[in-house]
Specification:
The chain has 26 helices and 18 strands. It has about 700 residues and is α+β, with helices and mostly antiparallel strands.
Length: about 700
């Protein structure tokens, strides 16, 4: 297989007709609207490589005013499933890629509205290949009748014996055409055997000459005469092979441009050869009515660079198995009692299956997933669903995937490459001319940084909506703990305690939670991890043994290195803090903090963490609904206590953190107090003192 560097038109310059949004038909005169397609096999989750292919196909069609189509290639009946097909469609919709033609996906949009993606499809379906068997069989008969295909009756064992014999001679194995097959001549004897029910496949009579693939990314690809053998177009089970079905469907569905990964380049010569040999039938489902004589059109091809791991290995679903296998082997090396049988019992899978997995005989994702769940192992994200579950934003995933093999060619004001943009930007600026030939390296750290940056800049209200939607799908129990069973937020009552199943958090408290977790959240899942202290019942806080010994029972820190030790323990300080918090409750004992704390939190803060005095006559008014004042006011309350007692702020804050959250690691203390409210905060402090004081 040889490649030339010359590119053909698939991008900024126009396809054959030279008309934007159109492509030349086989006759060379008329034009057709541009149609791209993404055609996944429903055998599992959507791989990020497939998502990038779909993105490029979508963007190319959108930029040139064409149509983007989804076709489900489910002819592998043993591995295909309706569940996987719907999952792939859901992933595409989540990514923001809507399709003009394809299966109809009914779903609820982000705003709660009903959507039906694909409802305006052209009448070129069905869009599931398993529903198009009559069409494929008609074209098989058409090829056989033209002497361009024939039944072949060799068994798998026969073919394997031939292959081994050729390999033993250090030669390349190719299927040898039977002596009785003459190109262009129908083998009636073979066809009679096939009609009689003898097990067979159908093979295409490959052309004798060179096959040329015009590739818009890699340049011309030439396959020398004799390199292409008579490949199978229909399997013994009666289903077409991928090669045959894709060629028939691309023609009948009007596909003009095909963008796909470079791993498919080995298949494209077969497709070009089939296109050269096929003509359209008068009735696509009935070969007996004859041919129109119109030859199939060859779409414009462009093969995209592979996506690899940072070490250069291909990024594949096997990476999950590799990670889980390495973990098990490492653990087994440390613990002789951890056998395949013990692992199988723990993850509730067959012992032989686990043993084969550890030995590297199989790469079952089922085993890898079960191991990760049972042992708390994080597997590498490979599929779109992995990134959804990990709390990545769809726009960020699309932004990053677009940069794997494509660049905008644009610069920022500081001279750096433009690399941060939304989906609409990709559609407006995409061109195949800027797709590279070299493999693309997937840098998970860079993607994570992209995601953290977008989350950090997101307005609190938007973050809250996005976070709650994610929790509702991926952590429904946490979602219920935050908002209750039947609503998406609380009222605006100024900070009453909440957070139990019966008392959801108020809207202000939810926003305080956002403020507490957003600076630390690289993904939406990080936000969930940071709020555990607020969701646990007040009587169920688990106290870290080390924190109790060091912070509560140990001496409290003085305000400066030069100050004499106070002689007080953290428990002593906690009693002082409890009194301070009791005094900070609203006088009406309504479960609110004093309103003065909100005003205090709006004042400028000095070096000691205390509000500074305002000039005479200057007042501060809080904008309606602004929830930031109370946490800052509570921080100032704690800072004031520390200053009065001659302690470092941490000398007061850390004992309080242990009492409220169980450890010294938590969001800002002011936010913790504001989120819990005075009743819950004081209940936790009282319990801590009761358990450890004395």
């Amino acid at each position: 297989m040889n490649t030339d560097s010359k590119r053909t038109g698939l991008g900024g310059e126009q396809p054959a007709a030279g008309v934007e949004g159109a492509a030349m038909d086989a006759g060379g005169g008329a034009v057709r609207p541009i149609v791209t397609r993404f055609a996944p096999s429903p055998t599992g989750h959507l791989h990020v490589g497939g998502a990038r292919t779909a993105l490029f196909c979508w963007a190319f069609a959108r930029r040139l005013g064409g149509r983007f189509m989804i076709r489900i290639e489910d002819t592998d009946q043993a591995r295909s499933s309706d569940e996987s097909a719907r999952g792939i469609l859901e992933d595409l919709a989540w990514l923001g890629l809507s399709w003009d033609d394809g299966p109809v996906l009914k779903r609820t949009g982000a705003g709660g509205e009903a959507e039906a993606i694909g409802a305006g499809s052209r009448a070129v379906g069905p869009y599931f290949q398993a529903q198009r068997l009559a069409i494929y069989n008609a074209y098989i008969e058409h090829l056989v009748g033209a002497g361009l295909a024939y039944p072949a009756f060799e068994s798998g064992a026969e073919l394997e014996a031939r292959r081994k014999a050729v390999v033993a001679l250090k030669q390349t194995y190719r299927y040898q055409r039977p002596a009785d097959i003459v190109p262009g001549v129908v083998s009636e004897a073979r066809w009679a055997r096939a009609r009689a029910g003898e097990s067979h496949v159908v093979r295409f009579v490959s052309p004798a000459g060179e096959v040329l693939v015009k590739d818009s990314v890699l340049g011309d690809v030439r396959i020398a005469a004799g390199e292409l053998d008579d490949f199978v177009v229909r399997k013994a089970d009666g289903f077409p092979t991928y090669h045959f079905a894709v060629v028939i469907d691309d023609e009948l569905m009007g596909v003009t441009h095909v963008l796909r990964a470079q791993e498919h380049l080995i298949n494209t010569p077969k497709h070009v050869a089939l296109q050269a040999g096929l003509t359209r039938l008068i009735d696509d489902a009935d070969a007996s009515k004859g041919s129109t004589g119109v030859r199939f059109t060859t779409p414009v091809y462009g093969h995209l660079p592979l996506i690899c791991n940072p070490d250069g290995s291909k990024m594949s679903k096997r990476d999950k198995a590799k990670a889980a296998r390495k973990f098990l082997k490492d653990q087994m090396g440390k613990d002789a009692g951890l056998t395949a049988a013990a692992v199988a019992a723990k993850i509730k899978l067959d012992e032989k299956m686990v043993a084969d997995f550890v030995a590297g005989e199989i790469d079952a994702v089922e085993v890898a997933t079960a191991v990760a769940g049972a042992y708390g192992l994080s597997l590498p994200e490979i599929d779109v669903w992995d990134y959804r579950a990990s709390g990545y934003l769809p726009g960020v995933v699309m932004n990053y995937l677009s940069l794997l093999g494509w660049s905008t060619g644009q610069k920022n004001a500081d001279g750096t490459d433009v690399d941060r943009f939304e989906l609409g930007f990709i559609a407006a600026n995409f061109s195949v001319e800027r797709i590279g030939k070299k493999e693309a390296r997937f840098d998970r750290a860079k993607l994570l940084a992209f995601n953290a940056d977008v989350l950090g800049k997101m307005p609190d209200e938007e973050f809250l909506r996005t976070w709650l939607r994610w929790l509702a799908v991926h952590e429904p129990s946490v979602h219920r703990g935050l908002v209750g069973a039947d609503r998406a937020g609380g009222g605006k009552d100024g900070g009453a305690g909440g957070g139990s199943a019966s008392t959801p958090f108020t809207h202000e408290q939810l926003l305080w939670l956002v403020q507490a977790v957003k600076p630390r959240a690289k993904t939406l899942a990080d936000g969930q991890r940071a709020i555990g202290f607020a969701l646990v019942d007040d009587g169920a806080v688990v106290f870290d043994v080390g924190a109790v010994a060091k912070v509560l029972r140990g001496a409290s820190a003085p305000a400066s290195k030069d100050a004499a030790p106070s002689g007080r323990t953290g428990l002593d300080v906690l009693r002082l803090a409890a009194a301070e918090l009791r005094g900070a409750q609203s006088p009406d004992q309504s479960g609110h903090w004093k309103s003065e704390l909100i005003e205090m939190g709006s004042l400028p803060v000095g070096p000691a963490g205390l509000p500074v005095s305002l000039p005479a006559g200057v007042s501060v008014s809080l904008p309606a609904g602004l929830p930031a004042g109370l946490p800052a006011g509570l921080d100032s309350l704690i800072a004031g206590l520390a200053q009065r007692e001659g302690l470092a702020i941490g000398g007061v804050a850390q004992p309080l953190r242990v009492a409220l959250c169980g450890s010294t690691v938590s969001p800002g203390l002011g936010h913790c107090l504001a989120i819990l409210g005075p009743a819950r905060a004081l209940a936790r402090v009282a319990r801590c003192l009761k358990e450890f004081d004395g």
